[in-house]
Amino acid sequence: MDIVHVPVLVKEVLEFFKNIEGVFLDCTVGLGGHAEAILSKIPNSVVVGLDVDEEALDLAKKRLERFVLAGRVKLFKSSYVDAVEVLKNLGFDHVDAILMDLGVSSMQLEKAERGFSFNRDGPLDMRMDKRQSLTAYEIVNSWDEEDLSRIIFEYGEEKRYARRIARFIVRNRPIQTTKQLVEVLARAIPNKHSRKRHFATRVFQAIRIAVNFELENLKKFLAQAPELLRPGGRIAIVSFHSLEDRIVKEFFRNEPKLKQLTKRPITPSESEIALNPRARSAKLRVAERV
Ligand code: SAM
């Protein structure tokens, strides 16, 4: 079965991009959902798409084949942190628009062997970039209790039980699989069934953010983004948890080279959430280069 990633807030993103032509940098091209929408709805557009996930790029290549053949899309296995270099090699000093769609793709979640999902039994992996050596297994089985507790508290925003969860993890080592981790969390977390989200959500989020250096990478890219945009160019960022959203919000608010176009973040409609539950926590913020 082909895995389809339904892009989130795609109409809303296009609304902000509709009067832009030229080079679009898709920092997180994933399975090419947003890129496909841009290429089909914005005639004079070229997309440079980056992703660190080789499997995602293969699927994007298939989905975007007609645009690849027409020379309108170029895909690279690269972190968006290195976007400036990739663009320089293509002869671009500036781009007209930037899109970041943070978070995990449906493909990453659905493939048990990637280890991202608490609903599927797989190895503790969670790497978006398989070239890197740090995995979820290493964090779960070798970080000390203090560091585990810190990431669960900070990245998982699990304010109440971070210490207790870290203690349970350390006591139950070795933990080999996502299912075993969920079983440990089930014992560690009191009142787990009264939670709005699955009780493992926060801890899985924390480990994933740590494995992939998600917040550090976002900050590193944002610092380069205003210079990369031509005046009048726009940057749109879809985030999926409050830590990312806070970083984007503060950056857009305090960066003199950018004007915020979204005072409040744009969120998906009820009907989008009904069709695509992954959209539930998405927030879109957009800014323009002055
Ligand atoms: N917009 C895409 C679509 O419509 O198909 C989905 C993007 S998905 C939510 C996020 C993607 O970002 C994943 O494929 C992930 O591998 C990628 N990613 C994560 N960190 C990255 C980084 N530092 N550089 C480039 N891509 C990254």
Automatic annotation (TrEMBL):
UniProt main location, coarse: cytoplasm
GO biological process: rRNA base methylation
The EC number(s) this enzyme carries: 2.1.1.199
Catalyzed reactions per annotation: cytidine(1402) in 16S rRNA + S-adenosyl-L-methionine = N(4)-methylcytidine(1402) in 16S rRNA + S-adenosyl-L-homocysteine + H(+)
Gene3D superfamilies for this protein: Putative methyltransferase TM0872, insert domain, Vaccinia Virus protein VP39
Record-level Gene Ontology MF annotations: rRNA (cytosine-N4-)-methyltransferase activity
Cellular localisation: Cytoplasm
Keyword Transferase tagged: yes
Keywords: Cytoplasm, Methyltransferase, rRNA processing, S-adenosyl-L-methionine, Transferase
One Pfam short name: Methyltransf_5
Top EC class, one word: transferase
InterPro entries named among the record's database cross-references: RsmH, SAM-dep_MeTrfase_MraW_recog, SAM-dependent_MTases_sf
Binding site for S-adenosyl-L-methionine: 32-34, 51, 80, 101, 108
Function: Specifically methylates the N4 position of cytidine in position 1402 (C1402) of 16S rRNA.
Protein name listed in UniProt: Ribosomal RNA small subunit methyltransferase H
Source organism per UniProt: Pseudothermotoga hypogea DSM 11164 = NBRC 106472
